[in-house]
Design goal:
Helix content is 32%, strand content 23%. By secondary structure, the chain is α/β, with parallel strands linked by helices.
Length: 255
Amino acid sequence: MSLIQATHIDVRHGATHAVQGVNVTLEAGEIVTIVGPNGSGKSTLLRALIGAVPVDGGTIKAAEGLRVGYVPQKLHIDPTLPLTVRRFLNLPKRVPTAKAREALARTGVDHLEKRQLAGLSGGQLQRVLLARAILNRPQVLVLDEPTQGLDQPASAAFYRLIEALRDELGCAVLMVSHELHVVMSATDRVICMNGHICCEGTPEVVTAAPAYRELFGTGTGGALALYRHEHNHDHHEHGCDHDPASVLSAEDPVS
Ligand SMILES: Nc1ncnc2c1ncn2[C@@H]1O[C@H](COP(=O)(O)OP(=O)(O)OP(=O)(O)O)[C@@H](O)[C@H]1O
């Protein structure tokens, strides 16, 4: 049985129809990356799949007792809050020191155990968040743009670590990333979102699209290509029957 099976789910935020009739299944051990422009519903979909956001339509079935480890997009820490890495791992539930150390060692930051959380670099903090997410030996590791703010070598190292953890723990990985070119080698399946799913497949299939080559060409030009791709292709030919313009207008920012 699939770990998660979502059928035709809809999520609305007030007047915004953020997720429109989306079908997603997640199998044990696979790495799935969700890409799409800003505001295309990636985070909403991710959060709906783990039950953190209620759905307005459709069904989500999760394997019984599914253990999920979640790495948030950002963690806002008050710089005056005295909280060490070790104590942070005790939130919300106390964990034995050996278990905490093992998790920190797995993500390469055991030397930071006694450091203040507020004093960590972006890359160090992401690894601590990852350590916290694997404490309960998750069957699914969920990451929402985990490398935001990291430079490319640090991002690449982080995704290599994710892949190694998947191999070691046997968990599935579901993540949102803007950096498909970086996560690609570590991704089994890519889901292209724009409210609905625009296209889906192996990185090879997605990268074969001319729009993808444009997308990850250069800087903003590449990012704009994703926007064009979502709007120019024949939606019926790709099995898409939603109007992406209902989610994005030409003025919407893309990243
Ligand atoms: N709590 C909320 N209340 C109202 N609208 C929301 C809320 N969360 C998201 N939205 C809206 O729903 C749409 C989808 O947002 P979501 O954060 O899922 O997109 P995203 O693809 O993850 O964006 P980004 O790449 O910028 O993180 C956007 O139009 C957003 O403004």
